[in-house]
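Sample 1 of the test manifest.
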Amino acid sequence: MAQKNYAGKQIEVTEEGYLVSPDDWTKELAVEMAKEDGIELSDKHFEVLEYLRKEYAAGTALSIRKVGKSGIVDIKGLYSLFPGGPLKLSSKYAGIPKPASCV
Amino acid sequence: MKRIVILGAGTAGTMIANKLRKSLDKEEWKITIADSDKLHYYQPGFLFIPFGIYNREDVIKPKSDFMPAGVDVIYSAIDKVDAGKNIVILEGGKILNYDYLIIATGTKTYPEETPGLTDKLWYKEIFDFYTIEGATALRNFIKGWEGGKLVMAITEIPFKCPVAPLEFVFLADDYFTKKGIRDKVDITYVTPMSGAFTKPVATKMLSELMEEKNIKVVPDFYIEKIDNDSKKLISYDEKEIPFDLLTVVPVNMGDKMIERSGLGDDMNFVPVNKETLQSEQYENIFVLGDASNIPTSKAGSVAHFAAETLYENLMNAIEGRPLLAKFDGHANCYIETGGGKGALIDFNYETEPLPGTFPLPGIGPFGLLKNTKINHYGKIMFRWIYWHILLKGKELPVEPLMTMAGKKKII
């Protein structure tokens, strides 16, 4: 565990930078987190983040395919919003745990 | 007379039919099992067909060989379940009433879900080995192949038997080495996951094996489509991988019947309580094997271990007790690594595969996370165990829930 300063607050994060507690999440925090990776969050990004937070709270197992069917963005769009690791990055900025892929 | 209907007579359905028929009174309970296919496939054996190690007849037997007396077997496709009315509608309209329903319709491959996969190169230079047709077509191709770029690609997770594509590349390395053309074959393993395997300790062991065998791993590659003209895999973020021979794990989803019945998630897997195996929607529906959404491997070993929990909870439900049996996600997989060796992994929802011995602590004979000859023999012997013991619901000397005895904790 580590601590990081986001939006003027000390926040507990995992070694890979994911929030320990999804309740610590704020929009400002997400903006600062994404900036560290060189990503400027738009309204579309936030629609995805809010969808992920909602589904996570409901206990849904998330996958790229699932987000692609959400009606918010298709898979290609998701890749262009979060280049490299769409679900890993979006989960990080949404303040939810790193997606666990099933064995 | 009360009725239990089992949908699907594969590994899971056959095992539970045997278990239930043995313990439920024949005067009181009618057990019916429905499946469209009269043949039982030993699916772990498909992997060996492309390399000529097994033949078609090694992996197929009539389903009727494994059905106990006193179980009604119906060979028919299933139209859908109307869970509100406690009925199953078969193709053609025949209706089965049930008091309890066990869904064991498994997972299937849907190559048509990936654009370009079933185009002009399908079963010519692109193959799967999850069907008898694919495995046989691949064998005929591989026999005459003179080398080039072999790409083993996973399209989507989860998929049946997560170690199978790893075993495939290990066996391919062995096969082409023995054929004397390994230097002409370039093997690449393409996965949407971030490594060869998802659990850290096993990934380390498997990655080392990949390197030793000169197999390149391309992680985080999520296939959008296959370009048949330029013979390339193309990812959603527009990366490209060329191939001469493509072997593929197609998208896995539950049976279409699940979708028609409105019982599945977006991949047609049935949401269940991962500990009790009871459907989240209906109290009198339980799910065994690959058909459910439990977060562990889709594999026969899981169905086997889970059968014990499902059986106990079904008895609990029938006799009005709370569902006290809890499944832990136990999976146990042999991994063929080529050259007559194999590795073995044992894990559950919470604990990743660890080194040690299995099934007897300190003795084995099988070494966990170790590459040994005896593990390979374990896999070869398993086919006999499967046909003669496992399907018939007889006891194996292995605990259904995972044990830490004989394992080394790694921090």
